[in-house]
Amino acid sequence: MGKSAVVGSVRALALRVLAPQAMKVVFLDIDGVLNSRAWFERHGPARGLGHLEPRACARVQRLCDETDAALVISSTWRVIHKRAAISEMFRARDLTTTILGMTAALHTARGYEIQAWLDASPAIAGLGAIEGMVILDDDADMVHLAPWHVMTDVEHGFTDRELVQAAEVLSRPMPASPREPAA
Ligand SMILES: [Mg+2]
After folding, report:
1. Considering only Cβ atoms within 10 Å of each terminal Cβ, which end of the chain, N or C, has fewer?
2. Domain extent listing, the chain
3. Mind listing the pLDDT tens digit for each residue in 70-97?
4. How far apart are the CA of 140 and the centre of ligand 1, in A?
5. How far is the CA of 77 from the centre of ligand 1 (A)?
6. In the chain, which residues have pLDDT < 70?
7. Which CATH architecture has domain 23-170?
8. How far is the CA of 43 from the centre of ligand 1 (A)?
9. How far is CA 174 from CA 19, 23, 147, 169, 183, in A?
């Protein structure tokens, strides 16, 4: 078992202790959600933490607090940064919601990567049934999961408008699963 798997197991165990009930999941893209063109115009090109706009981070935290949801990272940041580094940057922005994991990079539509995470989720120790989900992303490749997608605008990132939409989507029934990719 690799180090990240061990960390994942410890996290999952902590989750079982703290939240044994069914839960909701926010699949989180970062660029175009937690930052925006407007943000970069004001603050210039930055790296790491400089990519995280405090107000957008606060909205994601509020969404998770109000709906009792946890995060799964679906952004390409998962390929560039380790989960611990992402978690540390989020904490520096007061985004302290539990990060359950990251989707696998399958080099396919993001909707299929998210479906693969959902299909594998019953095997994640301590993770109860998933009773709601929403995908926050400024790209549209969600295939059959499009009804659970709240699309952000890269100009503004995650605003109050998308916060309201996301809370509504989280209250919907989960997609039927698993589903074959369309031919
Ligand atoms: Mg994006």
Report:
1. C
2. 23-170
3. 999 999 888 888 999 999 999 999 999 9
4. 10
5. 10
6. 1-2, 7, 12-21, 177-183
7. 3-Layer(aba) Sandwich (3.40)
8. 18
9. 19, 11, 10, 10, 23
